[in-house]
Design goal:
Layout (H helix, E strand, L loop, with lengths): L8 E5 L3 H13 L4 E5 L2 H8 L9 E5 L7 H9 L11 E5 L4 H9 L4 E4 L4 H13 L7 H5 L30 H13 L6 E8 L8 E2 L3 E2 L5 E3 L7 H14 L4 E7 L7
Parallel strand pairs: 1-2, 1-3, 3-4, 4-5
Antiparallel strand pairs: 6-10, 7-10, 8-9
Helix pairs in contact: 2-3
């Protein structure tokens, strides 16, 4: 497995800054020569229309973006409608393993695809395979005729969301979800006084400790609410997020005040 991409320039196309930075960190761990960003397909097209296709050697591209999504961007490249090479290596990123998206990407001769969240090892293997793959390109008009998968509307929020759920890093929480979580915390009395508050690294937190702060992700969305009892599964999930982000995470935690039956 390749340990370095020092002679490669990558373009990460994703509308979420957190995910762009996460992928950039993984690429830099593999000593990528250069990493550039675009927040959607239209911005990527501007870069690929620069001389020599902006010098991009490989595209890491999310699917679900506006105004130009990842599949539309891939079709634009394969149809020769930008200055980049038509066989530019493109690895698609998706938040799901949905068959219709994968099938559409393969029809458009994507070099590979990854389901988020992406680990460093899986990313390196996908890039190795992409650089080794040689495409037999079809005429541009064949790519132009391939229909695009339409982006589905956001699924409705489930009827109940337990207050301990760690919301996915791959999608924003709706206001409805946040309201439910906070409501359930109030209903279960978990806004009680939290004692012995101190800041600990993830590895120092023991199951049963209670969050003394809200935990947010990019764009301010709520991941875990104050008053959440951290069980082993949640602590394990936080360790995964820490490993993926490449940054140390510390949290304010404490103990719930013990109330007598007369309270």
């Amino acid at each position: 497995m390749t340990e370095t991409f020092s002679d490669r320039c990558f373009l990460i196309v994703d509308d979420k800054p957190f995910l762009r930075n996460l992928l950039q960190g993984m690429l830099l761990r593999s000593r990528a020569g250069e990493v550039r960003h675009a927040s959607h397909g239209a911005a990527a097209i501007d870069i690929l229309n620069q001389p020599q296709g902006g010098g991009i050697d490989c595209l890491l591209c999310d699917w679900n973006m506006e105004p130009v999504n990842g599949l539309e961007l891939l079709r634009t490249i394969r149809a020769g409608e930008v200055r980049a090479a038509r066989d530019l290596p493109v690895v698609m990123l998706t938040g799901c393993g949905e068959e219709r998206v994968v099938r559409n990407a393969l029809e458009l001769d994507a070099h590979g695809y990854l389901v988020k969240p992406v680990s460093h090892d899986r990313l390196v293997r996908a890039l190795d395979a992409a650089f080794a793959k040689r495409l037999s390109l079809r005429p541009p008009e064949e790519y132009r005729r391939i229909p695009m998968v339409e982006m589905a509307p956001e699924a409705p929020a489930p009827s109940t969301i337990p207050p301990w759920v760690l919301l996915s890093e791959m999608r924003p929480a709706t206001q409805r979800e946040v309201s439910r979580i906070l409501s359930e915390i109030r209903e279960t009395g978990r806004e009680s006084t939290i004692l012995n508050v101190r800041r600990l690294d993830i590895d120092q937190i023991e199951p049963g400790k209670v969050l003394a702060q809200n935990v947010h992700a990019e764009r301010g969305r709520l991941l875990l609410a104050r008053g959440t009892v951290l069980n082993a599964a949640l602590i394990g999930r936080l360790r995964e997020l820490e490993a993926l982000s490449g940054e140390a995470i510390s949290l304010q935690v404490g103990d719930l005040e013990q109330r007598g039956e007369h309270d």
